[in-house]
Amino acid sequence: MTASLATGNLHDALSPIARQTLPGRLSTTGVFAWRALVKLRRVPEQMTDAIVLPVLFTLMFTYLFGSALSGSTGAYLHELLPGTLVFTALLVTVYTGLVLKTDLDRGVLDRFRSMPMWRPALIAGSLLGDAGRYLVSTTIVIGLGLLMGFRPAGGITGVLSGIALVLLFAYSLSWIWTTLALLVRTPATLTMASFLVQFPLTFMSNVFVDPATMPGWLRTFVEANPVSHLVTTERALMDGTATTGQVVGVLLAAAAVTAVFAPLTMYLYRSQR
Amino acid sequence: MTRSQHGIPATEVGTSEWAIRTTGLVKSFGGTRAVDALDLAVPAGGVYGFLGPNGAGKTTTIRMLATLLRPDSGTAEVFGHDVVADADAVRHRISLTGQFASIDEDLTGVENLVLQARLLGFSRRFARTRADELLDAFDLTDAAGKQVKGYSGGMKRRLDVAASIVVTPDLLFLDEPTTGLDPRSRNQVWEIVATLVEHGSTVLLTTQHMDEADRLADLIAVIDHGRVIAEGTPAQLKVSVAADSDAQPTLDDVFLALTGHPADKEFAL
Ligand SMILES: Nc1ncnc2c1ncn2[C@@H]1O[C@H](COP(=O)(O)OP(=O)(O)OP(=O)(O)O)[C@@H](O)[C@H]1O
Ligand SMILES: [Mg+2]
């Protein structure tokens, strides 16, 4: 009909193309992880908050309050840095939720959702890719710490196992944000919620200040705060003094969070229609 | 048709003469009944035009048929598969170009298509070949490596259509595919529709351009307030309004006659 205007290429491109055997669950998850990593490269802005805040906090707290809080900046950094890792994880995982919310709002996911595939792959894969983001910000925080004189007794093994544990915990944590992303109406609500959750959890913990200096009622909260437990474990790992009990405790907490929020996310994601 | 060679089980081929059947389909948003007891029967093969004024419920219907929205009540089948109970079987047969592009603006054109092809089971290399082939066909080769964010509206639209034909679908939903396209790109979309139909696919097309519907559609349904108010071939629809007017009616006249005074007229076709 309108062949005069169309190119021969169009006709070639339109010759019936075989539907392939669909990829398995793992490959599909892998494709979405790839997508998240590519996006990370394409949208460097995503990284700025994840880098700027932890760096700023590490510098500010160490040099501004370090001596006052711990007697010397070196002693303070020793306590602060493992805490900053946890703080960073809390901060960065929110983006996973934000990205999901943005994708949903923009209709980017419509085509995927109308295709035959293992549904959880999209979210599980995105989360895996996002682990790349945690890895980048964690590495930067550690690198900065080393420059500033952070010399943990646990050595490389201690630091690496500390990073591994915090990544694992971050992965479980990001399911909470994907759940919230599917519940809130706007991305701004999600950002707001993240502040409301993160700041009390991080500041009312042992990340920045030793609980022994706090009034009793606050100390009760701080000591019950899961963030405090994670930070204590991180410090112990980096010092090479972590007990199996501490590590298992964190692993169990991560498993529990995942067991609740991963199915909840998937349930909400499926019923988005 | 060589479809059974393409990995679709032979039993699924051609057992249903209807590409789409809905009965009493309803979807409300809050107080608005977007789709209100819609009955639709779209035969397999050919182009089915889906017309109606803004807010008539076209997109909502397509989203239900594409398994993106769950109907409140009524049933909808695509090639005999229920869109709710058998959503995955439906998804094997369809492809969607929604009213609003569903491509990832952060990625480049080629990344979008490779992603799509990989999800459809193409090997890494074949995915890349297919992506390049489609980009070439849609005159997007120069922009292949650029982030979609920087594409013009028409380029985005073309990429979006390309993403929906990475594999040849049995049923393609095109929700206003030519809105915002220049004449050349619009012609390409027309060409795609014609070629797909030639290969045996069914296309459900919505458009605000009556000349486009006239030119492409074998059958047309006009919907308003979530219901079908007229159905037939373009010629039949014109005849139905010819009675009240003197001149040779166009589809534009049909559309105005139908949706301008919808309540008090009976349109028997
Ligand atoms: N997600 C939604 N939430 C609330 N109302 C909605 C939603 N989607 C559609 N509607 C309402 O449903 C009705 C039908 O909308 P729909 O998008 O299906 O119309 P349409 O025929 O595609 O219109 P257009 O020609 O403008 O694309 C409208 O009144 C619209 O406001
Ligand atoms: Mg619409």
Automatic annotation (TrEMBL), chain A:
Record membrane topology: Multi-pass membrane protein
UniProt keyword annotation of Ubl conjugation present: no
Transmembrane segments: 50-68, 80-100, 121-147, 159-183, 190-209, 247-269
Short name of one Pfam family: ABC2_membrane
GO biological process, alphabetically ordered: response to antibiotic
Keywords assigned: Antibiotic resistance, Cell membrane, Membrane, Transmembrane, Transmembrane helix, Transport
GO cellular component terms attached to this protein's record: ATP-binding cassette (ABC) transporter complex
GO terms of molecular function: ABC-type transporter activity
Record has Cell membrane as a keyword: yes
Location(s), subcellular: Cell membrane; Membrane
Domain ABC transmembrane type-2 positions: 45-272
PROSITE patterns according to UniProt: ABC_TM2
Family, per entry: Belongs to the ABC-2 integral membrane protein family.
Name this polypeptide is given: Transport permease protein
Organism: Kribbella caucasensis
From TrEMBL, chain B:
SMART domains reported for this sequence: AAA (SM00382)
Keyword terms of this UniProt record: Antibiotic resistance, ATP-binding, Cell membrane, Membrane, Nucleotide-binding, Translocase, Transport
Gene3D superfamilies: P-loop containing nucleotide triphosphate hydrolases
Topological category with respect to the lipid bilayer: Peripheral membrane protein
Protein name: ABC-2 type transport system ATP-binding protein
The keyword Ribosomal protein is annotated on this UniProt entry: no
Compartment(s) of residence: Cell membrane
Protein family according to the UniProt entry: Belongs to the ABC transporter superfamily. Drug exporter-1 (DrugE1) (TC 3.A.1.105) family.
Domain ABC transporter: 20-250
InterPro entries: AAA+_ATPase (IPR003593), ABC_transporter-like_ATP-bd (IPR003439), ABC_transporter-like_CS (IPR017871), ABC_transporter_ATP-binding (IPR050763), DrrA (IPR005894), P-loop_NTPase (IPR027417)
GO cellular component, one term: plasma membrane
Molecular function GO labels: ATP binding; ATP hydrolysis activity
GO BP terms, alphabetized: daunorubicin transport; doxorubicin transport; response to antibiotic
Statement: the UniProt record of this protein carries the keyword Membrane: yes
PROSITE patterns, per database record: ABC_TRANSPORTER_1 (PS00211), ABC_TRANSPORTER_2 (PS50893)
